[in-house]
């Protein structure tokens, strides 16, 4: 991803500052030159880059800096804060509430990733326990109906559309009414994107908005469009009240900077970024963690949210076992299964502090996913007795061979699994038990 390169360059400039023998105005200027040229090459709007440069210089008072004990930290903090300022309009995105029958309308140009993002958002809130429905109010593009219907059925999200109706406003009204009657928490309306900024597109958007009165309007923007982002965002902002933004295709060759500049054009916050074609490829966006991750400093809040979404506490058997300092093969299987359900591994890895973009280069997500899948085949070939054990019984070679035959997985890979299980088990033993940290986390144990 090209944004990784931006992160690496800014990071490089900050590190060069750490190594500089004298920290004076010249060193600060050199740092800013490098940071700004990296931002410009990533398509960030030139006015914004200029403003950012001025703001950093304002923040770093050279006279005070001369007497400061930690000059590097002062400068690095100033750059960090200003980078955050670039992507943060200072407004919180609107949040749907359970039991409130919220309506979200999606707008954006055709091909921006609107329909895909509708399903991703539905899956995101479904994971949070909401009852979500999708409405296809795009009668312009042939195939929009089938695409959203297919996505919705794959994601097990109820769908409303009408092949024979040609008026998108009518479809939106009926779809929203039907889902409201069935007490849905969140109703997502996908609208037409047409192919360019046509007057009819904006008129249609306004009519749908007037008819369904959405609580929030999300503007979907393609992250690869570069400098054109600014004028596109302004045109949409003039027609509808954009509440938040989703920037898509940030996984591919998106320089991302153009779309990031859209924040300034609309004054609306980026709420999510699309990082792939899969329904789980939607990352929550907030300025500080994003910049922190960009610079290889990790994204703790994203990691915490991901772990919370796993609802590990619902697996009572495992929590009880862990608190006692016991870790069975079944516990390991359940944990790995939950991780696999969370989507691509590289995303979770990327949230770990210390995982710089450079380090991620060596991580082969496909290979790790393949290994996890083969582990699942191994677990499927085990008996209940074996799964509930600590794995020691696999010292019997005949048992090991039986599982290898049943799962089609090589013996060495099964041994690697058992070894990893043993390692985890030792950690759990240390943390669990009556005095351990884990038993305090779970009062039911
Ligand atoms: P719409 O016309 O705005 O509804 O766009 P679609 O949802 O049909 O998406 C257009 C294309 O972009 C499809 O091929 C999607 O699979 C792809 N797409 C959407 N979001 C992403 C993303 O975040 N990353 C990548 N790589 N592709 C995406």
From TrEMBL:
Instruction: State any single GO MF term.
Output: GTPase activity
UniProt keyword S-adenosyl-L-methionine, yes or no = no
Q: Which GO terms describe its cellular component?
A: cytosol; endoplasmic reticulum; signal recognition particle, endoplasmic reticulum targeting
Domain comment?
The M domain binds the 7SL RNA and the signal sequence of presecretory proteins. The NG domain, also named G domain, is a special guanosine triphosphatase (GTPase) domain, which binds GTP and forms a guanosine 5'-triphosphate (GTP)-dependent complex with a homologous NG domain in the SRP receptor subunit srp101. The two NG domains undergo cooperative rearrangements upon their assembly, which culminate in the reciprocal activation of the GTPase activity of one another. SRP receptor compaction upon binding with cargo-loaded SRP and GTPase rearrangement drive SRP-mediated cotranslational protein translocation into the ER.
State the protein's name. Answer: Signal recognition particle 54 kDa protein
Which species does this protein come from? Answer: Coemansia brasiliensis
The shown chain, on whole-protein numbering, covers 1 to 445 of 526
Q: Is Protein biosynthesis tagged as a keyword?
A: no
Known catalysed reaction(s)?
A: GTP + H2O = GDP + phosphate + H(+)
Q: What does the protein in this record do?
A: Signal-recognition-particle (SRP) assembly has a crucial role in targeting secretory proteins to the rough endoplasmic reticulum (ER) membrane. SRP is required for the cotranslational protein translocation for ER import and preferentially recognizes strongly hydrophobic signal sequences. It is involved in targeting the nascent chain-ribosome (RNC) complex to the ER and is proposed to participate in the arrest of nascent chain elongation during membrane targeting. SRP54 binds to the signal sequence of presecretory protein when they emerge from the ribosomes.
Domain (SRP54-type proteins GTP-binding) spans 269-282
| Subunit-structure text | Fungal signal recognition particle consists of a 7S RNA molecule (scR1) and at least six protein subunits: srp72, srp68, srp54, sec65, srp21 and srp14.
Primary localisation category: cytoplasm
Gene encoding the protein: SRP54
């Amino acid at each position: 991803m090209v944004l990784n390169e931006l992160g690496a360059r800014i990071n490089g400039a900050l590190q060069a500052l750490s190594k500089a023998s004298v920290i004076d105005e010249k060193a600060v200027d050199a740092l800013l030159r490098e940071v700004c040229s990296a931002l410009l090459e990533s398509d960030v709007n030139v006015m914004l880059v200029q403003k950012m440069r001025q703001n950093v210089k304002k923040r770093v008072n050279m006279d005070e800096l001369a007497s400061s004990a930690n000059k590097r930290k002062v400068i690095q903090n100033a750059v960090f804060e200003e980078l955050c300022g670039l992507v943060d309009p200072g407004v919180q995105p609107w949040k749907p509430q359970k039991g409130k029958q919220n309506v979200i309308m999606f707008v954006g140009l055709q091909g921006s990733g609107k329909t895909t993002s509708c399903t991703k958002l539905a899956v995101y809130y479904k994971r949070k326990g909401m009852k979500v429905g999708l409405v296809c109010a795009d009668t312009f593009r042939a195939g929009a109906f089938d695409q959203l219907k297919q996505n919705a059925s794959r994601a097990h999200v109820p769908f409303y559309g009408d092949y024979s109706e040609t008026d998108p406003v009518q479809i939106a009204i009926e779809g929203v009414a039907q889902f409201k009657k069935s007490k849905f928490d969140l109703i997502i309306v996908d609208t037409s994107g047409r192919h360019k900024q046509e007057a009819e597109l904006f008129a249609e958007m306004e009519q749908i908005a007037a008819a369904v009165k959405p609580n929030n309007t999300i503007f979907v923007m393609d992250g690869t469009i570069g400098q054109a982002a600014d004028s596109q965002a302004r045109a949409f902002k003039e027609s509808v009240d954009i509440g938040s933004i989703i920037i898509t295709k940030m996984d591919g060759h998106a320089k991302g900077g153009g779309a990031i500049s859209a924040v300034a054009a609309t004054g609306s916050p980026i709420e999510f970024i699309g990082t792939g074609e899969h329904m789980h490829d939607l990352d929550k966006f907030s300025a500080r963690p994003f910049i922190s991750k960009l610079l290889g400093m990790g994204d703790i809040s994203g990691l915490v949210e991901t772990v919370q979404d796993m609802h590990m506490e619902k697996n009572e058997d495992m929590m009880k076992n862990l608190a006692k300092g016991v870790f069975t093969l079944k516990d390991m299987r359940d944990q790995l299964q939950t991780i696999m359900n969370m989507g691509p591994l590289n995303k979770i890895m990327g949230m770990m502090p210390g995982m710089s973009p450079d380090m991620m280069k060596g991580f082969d997500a496909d290979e790790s996913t393949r290994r996890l899948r083969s582990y699942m085949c191994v677990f499927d070939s085990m008996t209940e007795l074996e799964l509930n054990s600590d794995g020691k019984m696999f010292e019997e070679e005949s048992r090991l061979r039986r599982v290898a035959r049943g799962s089609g997985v090589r013996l060495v890979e099964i041994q690697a699994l058992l070894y990893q299980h043993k390692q985890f088990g030792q950690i759990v033993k240390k943390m669990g038990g009556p005095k351990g940290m884990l038993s305090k986390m779970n009062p039911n144990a």
